[in-house]
C-alpha cells in the first residue's frame, strides 16, 4: 500500500491497500497519523519514529519493520519511504509503501527452524559427514569430520578436496558429478594422501540431494577402512611367508 505525508500536516494519506493493511478494511484518503501510530505498541512506535527521524535528518534510508495489531491480529509490517527536500534542505514531503510481511517472516522462521534441526541431526551423526556445493566446495562439515580430518570447521568451510588431498581432486570431483547427473547413491574406496603426509584408505559414500534452498548439493559420508586394509595386508604377508616356508621345507618339496 502507498502512503504519503506532507511536512506540517497532522494527517497521512493511505491508499486503499494501505488502509486494509493498517485497519483491516479498505478505504482511501487522509487519516490522522496518531490513529495509525496507535496500531503500534509503544516500543514499536519508537522504532518507527526513530527510523523516520534518521531519514529526515541524516537521510538514512527509511526501511524498517515493526510489529503491529492490525485487523485484530498481530502482524509484521515493513515501512519504506523517501523524503523530498527543498533547495534549503527542508523536508517537503515523504512518500513510500507499507507491506504486510507477516507470512514471509513466519516462513523464514520455519525455514530457520528446519535448518537448525537438520544441522543438529547432522552434527551428532557419528561418522564424518560433509555437504558440498555443485562447484565442489564444502558448505557443511560435522564435528566428526573435523576430528577425522584434523582441521577446525572454519578452515574446512568453502574449501575443496584439493585443499586437503593435493592432486587427487579429479577422481572425487568425477564422483560428485556422477551422483548429481545420475541420481542415487554411490560408494567408492580411495587410497588418500593428505597434505601433511598421512595416508589411509577411505570408503566415500555420496548422494545428490536437494538442499533447503532448492539447490542440489552432494552429501558425502566417510568410512575409515585403513585398519581393515592394514590387517589384510599383514595377513597376506603372513600367508605368503608361510607359503614360502612350506615350499622350501622337505615336506613341502616332497609333496
Report on the architecture of this protein.
It contains 10 helices and 11 strands. It is an alpha+beta fold and 255 residues long. It has a 6-stranded antiparallel beta sheet, with helices on both faces. Strands 8-7-11-10-9 form a 5-stranded antiparallel beta sheet. It is rod-shaped. The protein starts with a strand and ends with a helix.
What are the salient characteristics of this protein?
255 residues, alpha+beta, six-stranded antiparallel sheet, five-stranded antiparallel sheet, 11 strands
Distance between the termini: 99 Å
Q: Order of strands across the biggest sheet?
A: 3-2-1-6-5-4
Q: Which structural class is indicated by helix and strand composition?
A: alpha+beta
Q: Taking all residues together, what is the mean pLDDT? A: 88
User: What percent of residues adopt helix (DSSP H or I)?
Assistant: 40-55%
Number of E-state strands: 11
Which series of helices and strands comes N to C?
EEHEHHEEEHEEHHHHEEEHH
Shape: rod-shaped
Unreliable stretches (pLDDT < 50, length at least 5) are none
* Helix count, DSSP H or I runs of 4 or more residues: 10
Q: Please compute the radius of gyration using only Cα atoms.
A: 33 Å
Hey, roughly how much beta strand do the residues contain?
25-35%
What can be said about the biggest beta sheet? Answer: 6 strands, antiparallel
Amino acid at each position: 500500500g502507498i502512503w504519503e505525508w506532507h511536512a506540517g500536516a497532522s494527517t497521512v494519506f493511505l491508499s486503499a491497500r494501505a488502509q486494509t493493511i493498517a485497519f483491516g478494511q479498505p478505504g482511501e484518503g487522509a487519516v490522522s497519523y496518531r490513529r495509525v501510530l496507535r496500531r503500534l505498541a509503544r516500543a514499536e512506535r519508537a522504532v518507527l519514529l526513530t527510523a523516520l527521524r534518521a531519514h529526515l535528518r541524516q537521510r538514512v534510508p527509511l526501511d524498517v519493520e515493526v510489529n503491529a495489531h492490525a485487523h485484530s491480529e498481530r502482524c509484521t509490517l515493513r515501512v519504506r519511504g523517501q523524503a523530498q527536500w527543498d533547495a534549503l534542505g527542508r523536508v517537503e514531503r515523504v512518500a513510500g509503501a507499507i507491506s504486510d510481511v507477516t507470512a514471509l517472516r513466519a516462513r523464514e522462521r520455519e525455514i530457520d527452524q528446519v535448518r537448525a534441526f537438520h544441522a543438529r541431526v547432522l552434527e551428532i551423526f557419528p561418522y564424518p559427514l560433509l555437504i558440498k556445493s555443485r562447484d565442489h566446495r564444502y558448505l557443511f562439515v560435522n564435528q566428526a569430520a573435523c576430528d577425522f580430518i584434523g582441521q577446525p570447521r572454519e578452515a574446512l568451510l568453502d574449501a575443496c578436496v584439493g585443499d586437503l588431498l593435493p592432486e587427487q581432486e579429479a577422481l572425487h570431483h568425477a564422483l560428485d558429478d556422477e551422483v548429481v547427473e545420475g541420481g542415487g547413491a554411490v560408494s567408492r574406496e580411495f587410497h588418500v594422501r593428505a597434505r601433511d603426509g598421512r595416508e589411509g584408505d577411505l570408503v566415500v559414500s555420496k548422494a545428490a540431494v536437494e538442499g533447503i534452498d532448492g539447490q542440489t548439493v552432494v552429501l558425502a559420508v566417510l568410512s575409515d577402512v585403513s585398519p581393515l586394509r592394514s590387517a589384510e595386508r599383514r595377513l597376506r604377508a603372513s600367508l605368503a611367508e608361510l607359503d614360502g616356508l612350506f615350499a622350501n621345507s622337505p615336506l613341502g618339496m616332497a609333496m
